[in-house]
Amino acid sequence: MKVSKQIACIIVTFNRVSILQENLKFIQGQEINPDIILVVNNGSTDGTIAFLQTQESWIYAVNLPVNVGYGAGLAAGIDYARENWEIEYFWLMDDDSFPNSKVLSSLKSEVEGKRLDGILGVTGFRLERGIPRPIRQADQGISNADFVLVDNALLSASAVTQVGNFRTDLFMMCEDYEYCFRLRKYGLLVGVLNDPLMEVNRKHLGSQSNSKNLIWRGYYHSRNLMLILKDHFTLKGLINYFYRQGKYLIHSMFFGVNRWSRTKYRLIGIWDGIWGISGKTLDPLSLKRVSRN
C-alpha cells in the first residue's frame, strides 16, 4: 500500500551542481516543507550524482542516463512519485529558481480546504494574437491565465490523472504552454496567484540576452510551437503562430548579435515543426544537429 504524501517537490537539474545546492537551501527554507523532495538528474556529468548520494537521507533522486530536457524530466519525476506514493500536489521547480520562504505556504494556503483541480502558478500570461503578456494584478487572489510558468507552480495530481503527464518529445521550451493548453481544454484551472509576500528569483541561466543561448532557444521555440499547433490546430492559432514568428524573425535579422544564426535556426525550427521532427535535434552547446535514431 502506498503512503499518502500531500506535496512532492520535483526539481530538474543538469550539470549545475552548485546552482542545485543553492536551490535546495531555498527549498529547505520554506515556511512549510514539501513532504518529498525529488531531484531529477538529467544525465549530469559534473558531480551531481555524487552530491545527491550524500543527501540520500532527505532527498530522493532519479538519475537519467542522458539529458532529456525539462518537460521530460518533470514527467520522469512525476511518474516516479506517483509509482511510489499517493501524492496530492506536485510543486514543480527548475534548479536555477530560488523561491523566498513564503512561496509554498502561500500556494498551499490558497488551496487549503479547496480541491484545486489544475495548476496554480506564480507567474502567468494571457495571449494577445499569440504573444504572451504578463498578468499584472491589482488585487490579491487567483486570476485565470492562458498559461503559467510551471516553474514554482503547484499542480494537482488529479489534473495529471485527467490530462496525462508532460510531453517528453519537446526537449526544451514550451512545455508549460502545451501543458496548460491541455488543462484548459479539459476545463481545469490554469491560474496565477498574486501574493505580495511571494518572490521568486529566477536566474534564467539558459536564456541570457544576446548570448548563443538565444540561437538554440529560438530553434526549439519555433519548432515546438509548430508541433503544438499541429496537435491542436485552429485557423486562429495558425495566424497567431506566423504573426508571432514573423516578429521574432524581423527582430533576429536586424537587432542584437548572432543575427544570421538566430534567423537561420528559427527558420529551421519552423521547417522541422512542419515536418513533425521532435526530440533533441539540436545540441545546445555545439549547435550541431543531433541525428534521430
From TrEMBL:
InterPro entries for this protein: Glyco_trans_2-like, Nucleotide-diphossugar_trans
Top-level division of the source organism's lineage: Bacteria
First and last residue of the signal peptide: none
Keyword Heme carried by entry: no
UniProt EC number: 2.4.-.-
Matches recorded under Gene3D superfamilies: Spore Coat Polysaccharide Biosynthesis Protein SpsA, Chain A (3.90.550.10)
Keywords: Glycosyltransferase, Transferase
Family, similarity comment: Belongs to the glycosyltransferase 2 family.
Name listed for the protein in its UniProt record: Glycosyltransferase
Species: Algoriphagus aquatilis
